[in-house]
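Quarterly update from the structural biology core.
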Amino acid sequence: MAYQRVFAIVLDSVGIGEAPDAAAFDDVGPDTLGHVGEFYQGKLALPNLAKLGLGNIRADRPIAGVAPAVNALGAFGKMQEVSAGKDSMDGHWEMMGLPVKQPLSTFPEGFPKALIDKIAAFSGRDVIVNRPYSGTDVIHDYGEEQMRTGALIVYTSGDSVLQIAAHEDVISVAELYRICEYARSLVNGPEWTIGRIIARPYVGPDKDHFTRTANRHDFSLEPTGPTDLDRLNKAGLDVIGIGKINDIFSGHGITRGYHNESNMDGMDHVDEVMASDFHGFCFTNLVDFDAMYGHRRNPKGFGQALMDFDQRLGRVLANLKDDDLLLITADHGNDPGFRGTDHTREFVPLLAYSPAMAKPNQTLGIRSTFADLGATILDNFSVDGAANGTSFLAQLSTNTHEVTK
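Predicted structure, tokenized:
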């Protein structure tokens, strides 16, 4: 059958174990879900994800607290990334049929003086820090100096990102966005090609009380070719982006977008879209797992966010129509039990469910690229793609594979 509406929810950074090429990224040993489960000592309560088959994905190496379902309601598997990076942009673009084949620019020693000088000249402000840094640590360590001097805090990470932090009372959000837009214009190649420029406004009276606000905005590299969102849009389907989806794809192919204040705000938007009359694809990113807990190496908060999402997932499952399809996955890992503060190269989970699924409790196996997700969505709507992925749509209707043991 063809589903009239497809909902894909990306649990940003919720990886499910080391990818085969993890060593190439200096990421031997990460396991986001596994290590969060271990931290909770079997008390990680994810009943809705479990009944869809989360625990069945790797039944030979269970996630503590997430037992394999005897008869999973959905189909389950995992996906391997082929893109050259492990950033959100790489993961989402690949899901939508556009793998990132060439590594983007990274700056482990900080950004070149020529680039920093241009940003300083345009903004009329000094630039401080200019090196890899944790986002929360950098405002703790330099936020008061930024407030006192009006400088820009510029920093990076292991990913292809240039982040600019400023206190909202010192540099308005509008001004910060204008500076980031200019920085974006400088790094689209060929000398420097950076995946994302991220505005990181914060508030608070002093270093012990600074908090980053929901006015974060990602200025992403324009997609280097058409994506499955463009293809769906061109075919006349509704394409709805929730969370940072609109930023990641620079608005390309999206007919309606929602900004998220938090994971729960994002789920409110999912509920709103589910209650509306649309025909097409709703693509959601929930970033708190990554921004609030993964990068901060906070397994307790990460696990609580998973449990909070699981509760809201119950409402989604109750409201799905027979001709709706739900897909749940992630874009990379960010193991709070791993060293450092960067993303981790991992498999990502893949869950699929519809109330009308003829034969649930089946494995989708190990998908060789994230692009299989987009290929499946295109297949459902009979839209031609770029042949970068393989559809698993038929497996959602017929039980052609044995359940993973």
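Residues 231 and 383 are 7 Å apart (CA to CA).
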